[in-house]
Write a structure and sequence with these properties.
Layout lengths: L5 E3 L6 E4 L3 E3 L12 E4 L1 E3 L7 E3 L6 E3 L3 E3 L1 E2 L3 E4 L3 E4 L5 E2 L4 E4 H34 L1
Pfam family, one: Sushi
Protein name: Sushi domain-containing protein
InterPro entries: SEZ6_CSMD_C4BPB_Regulators, Sushi/SCR/CCP_sf, Sushi_SCR_CCP_dom
Length: about 140
């Protein structure tokens, strides 16, 4: 290349140009900037995919713009949007939903019920014993 000549770099769809797109040949016979790189735009599936039946594959990379539709296995409830798109910044919009076990949810509700019953029992015993104690 002769001094003053230029090259313009572009990346294919799904790739991001990292560096300067325009390079000019200098009088010293070098380029004005380092050669840029094309970095693939993709999103990863989460490492922990508890209960997800459809929509994501563990360890798979998804290209920028890819849309996933998530479904949960039986016994799990989807929390979040069932559809998400891979963004340029490697994130998902909206954030990927998660599948929560319905057993875990009912265990939490059961713990609350047991706690309330115990509190009611203590209150009843206390109210029963206070009048007995005052009569003495």
């Amino acid at each position: 290349f002769s001094p003053g000549m230029s090259i313009v770099y572009r990346c294919d769809e799904g790739y991001l140009l990292v560096g300067e797109a325009l390079l000019i040949c200098t009088h010293e016979g070098t380029w004005s900037h380092p050669v840029p790189l094309c970095k693939e735009l993709n999103c990863s599936s989460p490492e922990y995919m508890n209960g997800i039946q459809k929509g994501l594959e563990s360890g798979k990379k998804y290209q920028h713009g890819a849309v996933v539709n998530l479904e949960c296995e039986e016994g799990y409830t989807l929390e979040g949007s069932p559809q998400s798109q891979c963004l340029e910044d490697h994130g998902w919009n909206p954030p990927l939903a998660v599948c929560k076990s319905q057993v875990e949810l009912s265990e939490d509700e059961g713990s609350l019920s047991v706690g309330l019953l115990f509190l009611l029992f203590l209150t009843a015993v206390t109210l029963y014993l206070i009048p007995k104690h005052r009569k003495r």
